[in-house]
Design a protein that fits this description.
Elements lengths: L4 E7 L3 H10 L10 E3 L4 E7 L4 E7 L6 H7 L4 E9 L2 H10 L11 E2 L5 E5 L9 E5 L6
Parallel strand pairs: 1-4, 5-8
Antiparallel strand pairs: 1-5, 2-3, 3-4, 6-7, 7-8
The structure holds cobalt (II) ion.
The site of cobalt (II) ion (CO) has 6 residues, from strand 1 and strand 5.
Length: 140
């Protein structure tokens, strides 16, 4: 059911510092500007790789869900992985049928790529926070 790995989400206390790391240490040359997504409580920036992206995420506002993560790992770290699925609603229903815990109401939310996403609780996915996103039509 899952398709391509779309991105790996990395939480960071400073997107600017993380951008510098990916640019200077790893030589990444395609990094998108730091952009706010207030409805998700995050700033994001994407490091474009040939086969996937690194999604750098930094807390936006006091209610950001990332504050709890960074309280445990203050220097940041791997936060989630994101797989593409052909049909987000069918994927959600299949995940529920198989016993995985869909976060929130289960209604897909608009993700950073402008397509709907859901998140699965790590307790049902081997300890990994998993994001499923509707396949972007233009990429295929
Ligand atoms: Co993500």
């Amino acid at each position: 059911m899952i398709g391509r790995l779309n991105h790996v989400g990395i939480a960071t206390p400073s997107i600017e510092e993380s951008q510098a790391l990916y640019r200077d240490l790893f030589g990444a040359n395609e990094i998108t500007p730091r952009t706010a997504i207030p409805e998700q409580g995050v700033w994001v920036s994407f490091v474009n790789l040939p086969n996937a992206q690194i999604e750098l995420i930094e807390p936006y506002g006091d209610a950001s869900p990332l504050h709890a993560f960074l309280a445990k790992t203050p220097k940041g770290g791997q936060h989630h992985v994101c797989f593409e699925v052909p049909d987000i609603l069918a994927a959600r229903d299949e995940m529920r049928d198989k016993g995985a815990a869909v976060l929130g109401t289960g209604e897909p939310r608009m993700g950073a790529h402008g397509v709907p996403v859901i998140f699965l609780h790590p307790k049902g996915t081997g300890g990994v926070l998993v994001e499923l996103m509707q396949e972007p039509a233009a990429d295929h």
